[in-house]
Automatic annotation (TrEMBL):
Superkingdom of source: Bacteria
Record Pfam families: Cons_hypoth95 (PF03602)
Entry protein name: 16S rRNA (Guanine(966)-N(2))-methyltransferase RsmD
GO biological process, one term: rRNA methylation
GO terms assigned for molecular function: methyltransferase activity; nucleic acid binding
Keyword list, A-Z: Methyltransferase, Transferase
Keyword check for Zinc: no
Organism listed in the record: Psychroflexus sediminis
Length: 180
């Protein structure tokens, strides 16, 4: 896994094999960030990375100049890896150890972009719950976007705030707008 662009371009993220993660592939991540490059100014964003895992998405945002990135994951080994890597790279990453659903129910943070990469085998209702909590609690700023990464075997097009999706191999990025 590598950081594909920005000031940390080319840096490798080598996570221990024991971590229960399925990092976004470099190809899919590069495609996603090419889409975002044409839509947003990274320096002005506040980002929340849910199910952050090894932080591949978080570190990509920081590399591109995003000032505030919050990474949320429940796994203590992922949190340790995020903390160690942030320290080694001298990065300011807010790291929160929490169940994502509990975090969403309790947080007072708002973001311009929320990225969620839950386990692909999560039931569809749980994917819907992510969008529902974010919408009901108004966790996205005006003009904010939620992006959920999921398997090509999962469809989220029925959700009211759905706006589009992009497929890359087995991965799909579904985009949701702030207002329904």
């Amino acid at each position: 896994m590598r950081i594909v662009s920005g000031r940390l371009k080319g840096r490798r993220l080598i996570a221990p094999k024991k971590l229960p993660v399925r990092p976004t592939t470099d190809m899919a991540k590069e495609a996603l960030f090419n889409i975002l490059n044409n839509r947003i100014r990274f320096q002005e964003l506040e980002v929340i990375d849910l199910f952050a895992g090894i932080g591949s998405i978080s570190f990509e945002f920081i590399s591109r100049g995003t000032q505030r990135v919050t990474a949320v994951d429940a796994n203590i080994d992922c949190i340790k890896f995020l903390t160690k890597t942030s320290e080694e790279l001298d990065l300011d990453l807010d790291i929160i150890k929490s169940d994502v659903f509990e975090f969403l129910e309790k947080t007072t943070l708002k973001a311009d972009l929320i990225f969620a990469d839950p386990p692909y085998d999560l039931p569809t209702e749980e994917f819907e719950k992510i969008e529902n909590i974010i919408r009901e609690r108004s966790l996205l700023n005006e003009e904010g976007v939620l992006i959920i990464e999921h398997s090509k075997h999962t469809s989220l097009q029925h959700i009211n705030t759905y706006s589009e999706q992009r497929k890359y191999g087995n991965s799909v990025f579904s985009f949701f707008k702030t207002q329904s």
